Amino acid sequence: MPLIFIVSGPGGVGKGTIVRDLVQRDPVLWLSRSWTTRAQRPGEPDDAYSFTSRQAFEERIESGGFLEWTEFLGNYYGTPTPEPVPGRNTVLEIEVDGARQVKALHPEAVLIFVLPPSRDEQARRLRGRGDPDDKVDQRVRKAEEEEPIGRALADHVVVNDDLERTISEMLQIIERHRRRAGQAAG
Ligand code: 5GP
């Protein structure tokens, strides 16, 4: 069974940067691209998501084409059912409701929950992304709800106080699980 690593955590914690770094450094990792009905942010890369309409998303739900999906602050987000890539480990960067669904289907999936060093730092990072103030407030409140749920579900909790340290801690966690699963290092 190919390993699945789930990287979850509240908004503004730096998950996107973390997973981009992880897949660059570890060629065995394969990052799944999510679907979303959220509008693309100014400056956001075209391949950050498969940006899609609500209708197309709902059709894919109907046809059973998602491993998990959720509605997050008024938009749909979902992981298309992955085709296992031989020799690779799947990485999912998703919020906690999706993480809960994947753990229910695949209890062996490894959930790494990332926390911000402080609420102030998290709010600062959210503002820095160019979201309007009301959206930032919504996301901060949502993050407060998500944190206890994520901590309870997590196999590992990592505080992202320093990106370099966070990445190396996560690479060690990944390596440990590979060894446990009898898979060689990438
Ligand atoms: P954002 O709008 O900031 O890109 O994403 C909002 C939240 O949705 C983030 O916590 C992000 O990790 C999460 N997310 C992104 N893709 C997926 C997905 O496919 N499924 C789920 N459940 N959450 C996702």
Could you characterize the architecture of this molecule?
Helix content is 42%, strand content 22%. The longest helix is centred in the last third of the chain and has 21 residues, at 133-153. The relative contact order is 0.23. It is an alpha/beta fold and 186 residues long. The radius of gyration is 16 Å and the shape is globular. It has a domain at 4-32 and 87-180: Rossmann fold. The protein has helices at residues 15-25, 54-62, 96-105, 119-128, 133-153, 163-180; strands at residues 4-8, 29-31, 35-36, 50-51, 66-72, 75-80, 89-93, 110-115, 156-159.
The CATH C-level class name of one domain = Alpha Beta
* CATH fold-level label of one domain: Rossmann fold
> Based on DSSP secondary structure assignment, what is the total number of beta strands?
9
Cα radius of gyration in angstroms: 16 Å
Q: How do the strands of the widest beta sheet line up side by side?
A: 2-7-1-8-9
Listing every helix as H and every strand as E from the N terminus to the C terminus, the arrangement reads EHEEEHEEEHEHHEH
Quaternary structure: single chain
Ligand kinds: guanosine-5'-monophosphate
Q: Helical amount among residues, as a percent range?
A: 40-55%
Large-scale geometry: globular
State the low-pLDDT regions, or none: none
The share of residues in extended strands comes to 15-25%
Judged by helices, strands and strand pairing, the structural class is: alpha/beta
What is the level-2 CATH architecture name of one domain?
3-Layer(aba) Sandwich
On the 0 to 100 scale, the average pLDDT is 93
The CATH homologous superfamily of one domain is termed: P-loop containing nucleotide triphosphate hydrolases
State the separation between the terminal residues, measured CA to CA: 16 Å
Q: What is the helix tally?
A: 6
Summarize the biggest pleated sheet. Answer: 5 strands, parallel
